Amino acid sequence: MTERLGQVVTLAIGEDLFAVPVTRVMEILDQRRIARLPQAPRHLLGVIDVRGDGVAVVDLRALLGCEVIDDIDSSRILVLWVQTPERRAVIGLRADRVIEVTMLDDGVIAPLAEAKMLNWDERLVAGIGRRNGDFVTVLDLDRMFDGATLAQADGMGRAAGLPQKSVA
């Protein structure tokens, strides 16, 4: 089943394109110092100050099971809101780069029909769309930040032997 989607913010991890609904994005920040937290899971980079409030910053690379890298010149933090069962939360999401605010081709996203057959846990994905003919994965922010998904992301990093972020 296809779904119509309004404007999105497109972002990238390496060469892979992702999108989030523009209605969820509060602001986009340049790189800045992130205060590290002791014993934080691999995906939690730390906290930043956003207009006097502490906002947790999550590494999109770690959530997606990709190699974690340090900031690059194009790294950005999307400050966005997610809905948890308890409340609306504000989270920072670090990506390699933010590309643009746009509409997907035809404004449509669709699930990957073969996901279950291929034993793929698609809970991070709201659907697949296209922008200028290229595939764009639209992230499901609410499911991305549920406890089970975050625990799985941390477990993937530990199982792969990837180093945990340390407090410097």
Describe the model.
The protein has 168 residues and is mostly beta strands. The protein has 3 helices and 12 strands, in the order ββββββαββββββαα. The chain has helices spanning 60-63, 141-144, 147-159, and strands at residues 3-4, 8-13, 16-21, 25-29, 44-50, 53-59, 76-83, 88-95, 97-102, 108-109, 125-131, 134-139. It has a 5-stranded mixed beta sheet with strand order 9-2-3-12-11. A hairpin with a 2-residue loop joins β2 and β3. The longest helix has 13 residues, at 147-159. The protein starts with a strand and ends in a 9-residue tail after the last helix. Mean pLDDT is 83; it is low at 156-168.
Which key terms come to mind for this protein?
five-stranded mixed sheet; 168 residues; 12 strands; single chain; mainly beta
Neighbour order of strands in the largest sheet: 9-2-3-12-11
Overall mean pLDDT score? 83
Number of strands: 12
Order of helices and strands: EEEEEEHEEEEEEHH
Strand content: 35-45%
The largest β sheet comes out as:
5 strands, mixed
Distance between the termini: 47 Å
Q: Which class of secondary structure composition applies to the elements?
A: mainly beta
Topology:
Blueprint: E1 3-4, E2 8-13, E3 16-21, E4 25-29, E5 44-50, E6 53-59, H1 60-63, E7 76-83, E8 88-95, E9 97-102, E10 108-109, E11 125-131, E12 134-139, H2 141-144, H3 147-159
Parallel strand pairs: 3-12, 6-8
Antiparallel strand pairs: 1-10, 2-3, 2-9, 4-7, 5-6, 7-8, 11-12
